[in-house]
Specification:
Number of strands: 13
Largest sheet: 6 strands, parallel
Mean pLDDT: 75
Helix content: 40-55%
Structural class: alpha/beta
Strand order of the largest sheet: 7-6-3-2-1-13
Low-confidence stretches: 1-10, 12-20, 23-86, 95-176, 184-190
Strand content: 5-15%
Shape: globular
């Protein structure tokens, strides 16, 4: 995403550190890390998941029932209409016949008896009305019928949209301007982002669609041919960056600018910028910032707000549009680095500080991503090194670990509402004794989607982590990607070069071919990714064009 004019310069962003210095003075002493407890054994007993369990808050922003979340079509109707059009074109059926079928007939209005002058005047009025109605019918009736293969022959990124009055073709022709088109069709106002996104997905090639559900890493310290290939030829939908790739302000901003310029569809550019001692990706560019535990130790939610504003300004100044934060795990033990990465040891404390941070950060224009679903607070080991096993009861998990996720998913405040979530690798035998959470349909579909009502983007944790294992055996990253999509995830994090990205793409194609993964599930995932990009202004909320 290109930095906007009002975004801060390097000096502007750095000037905000004065507040952070004052906040630091409020900190209490952090507790020392205790030795890690031994890993708990896996409970082999199968525990049935209650089908009657429901967790949808019907007073929240969503009025859709839990059942409908699981049974809803993966694509809204506009995509079906467009598919029908393509089939008719392939069969040689003229398009004007299709237009007649979907356009309502004009009403016949009998002319009343009147004096000749008044009659002529009314006839003129009727003609004008008919003309207006014809325009409306053509525009509304043809709303879902747009040019094919918009992505295949595109010459520049979708984010660079032409003004309406310069467009030609079936969408809108001169002399209509953008305001007139919107007034006539109410397109932007009344079509959901997912409906518009489904039109994009319907026009994508399979390679383009698969690419959009992958967030790549790269091992180079600069914008390299390897990264360029993943973006331009493999169509990756996002990139994650680490501190070794962000050495200076100008270098980082230039690399991100090149990424967006070469990508056909605007990218989600992400970083884990939590702050604190352990997860500070921007440390080569900006002064240290307070981490979650630092913020909570001040006892002042205003500190969380100021830190959220600051991180948004600094990320956007570089061109980073996604922060893989806040961490909303509830610290239940001093596990691996949890003592510095969490906002508290109760759901109430986590929500209190993470909410203020999230609202400030998202209000500043950066997409937040809550993690690590369903909750790492009781993990004794690092998921990078092995699979944490959390032996808590189902009631305990629902009332503690899952509580912050439920809050941020169902919040009525759009600034603190989570539109992106990151699950991770942990085993909770009381709910699913076999699969790590991010590969588990029970967690990713039954609980996250159906019970909590989450309809945003689920981005996996890195699929090369040692915790990606089943029954003690590591899972190949490409196969893990297939399992993650099948479970209900929308974006896959992990491939670090061209070869790994190609392996994952080929694995997904093979799964589609043999029926392991359904095309509808892939469509749903890609649609959510495109819808998020539209919703957050990374690409225009309009149908695809040539």
């Amino acid at each position: 995403m290109k930095a906007k004019d009002q975004q801060p310069s390097e000096q502007d962003a750095a000037s905000e550190t004065a507040q952070s210095d004052q906040d630091t003075q409020k900190l209490a002493a952090l507790p020392a890390k205790r030795p890690l407890p031994e890993r708990s054994p896996v409970v082999e007993e199968q525990v049935a998941f209650p089908a009657s369990q429901t967790w949808i808050d019907h007073n929240s922003r969503s009025t859709t029932s839990a059942a409908s979340h699981g049974k809803a079509a993966s694509r809204p109707m506009p995509a079906l209409t467009y598919t029908t059009r393509r089939k008719r074109e392939a069969a040689g059926e003229p398009l004007n016949q299709e237009s007649r079928e979907i356009s309502p007939p004009l009403p016949e209005t009998p002319a009343p008896l009147s004096r000749p002058r008044e009659k002529a005047k009314r006839r003129s009025t009727h003609i004008l009305v008919v003309v207006v109605l014809v325009v409306l019918v053509v525009l509304v009736g043809g709303g879902a019928l747009f040019s094919q293969r918009w992505l295949v022959n595109a010459q520049r990124p979708v984010a660079t949209a032409q003004p309406f009055n310069q467009l030609v073709g079936p969408f809108a022709a001169p002399p209509f301007n953008s305001g007139q088109v919107n007034d006539l069709r109410h397109l932007v106002d009344h079509m959901q982002y997912k409906q518009l996104a489904s039109l994009y997905v319907a026009n994508m090639s399979l390679d383009e669609e698969i690419g959009q559900v992958i967030m790549v890493e790269y091992s180079d310290e600069y914008y390299s041919p390897n990264l360029n290939h993943m973006l331009t030829d493999l169509h990756a939908g996002g990139v994650i960056m680490y501190e070794f790739q962000m050495k200076t302000f100008n270098q980082t901003k230039n690399d991100i600018s090149q990424m967006q310029q070469h990508a056909k569809i605007p990218l989600l550019i992400s970083a884990d910028e939590e702050g604190g001692c352990c997860v500070h990706r921007l440390k080569n560019i900006y002064p240290p910032r307070l981490g979650p535990t630092d913020i909570a130790n001040t006892g002042d939610v205003n500190v969380a707000t100021s830190e959220g504003k600051r991180v948004a300004r600094e990320l956007l100044a570089l061109g980073i549009n996604v922060n893989l934060a806040p961490d909303v795990d509830v610290q239940l033990r001093p596990g691996y680095d949890q003592v510095t990465r969490t906002f508290g040891s109760t759901p109430q404390d986590v929500i209190k500080y993470a909410s203020a941070y999230m609202k400030a950060m998202q209000g500043g224009g950066v997409i937040g991503c809550i993690k690590h679903f369903p909750g790492l607070g009781d993990a004794a080991i690092d998921a990078h090194e092995g699979l944490p096993v959390i032996n808590r009861t189902k009631d305990q998990i629902y009332s503690v670990e899952l509580a912050p996720f439920k809050y941020f998913i169902q919040s009525k405040d759009k600034l603190e509402r989570a539109d992106m979530i990151m699950p991770t690798d942990l085993l909770m035998p009381a709910i699913d004794p076999n699969l790590p959470a991010e590969l588990s349909p029970t967690f990713m579909t039954d609980i996250l989607r159906k019970q909590m009502g989450f309809d945003g983007v689920s981005l996996t944790d890195a699929l090369y982590m040692q915790g990606v294992s089943i029954n003690g055996r590591r899972i190949d990253m490409s196969y893990a990607g297939v399992l993650a999509l099948k479970a209900g995830n929308d974006m896959l994090l992990g491939p670090t070069d061209t070869a790994q990205t190609e392996d994952m793409i080929n694995a997904i194609k093979a799964a589609l071919k043999d029926g392991t993964l359904s095309k509808a599930r892939l469509d749903e995932a890609a649609t959510r990714v495109i819808a998020l990009k539209m919703q957050r202004g990374l690409m225009p909320a309009m149908p695809p064009m040539k």
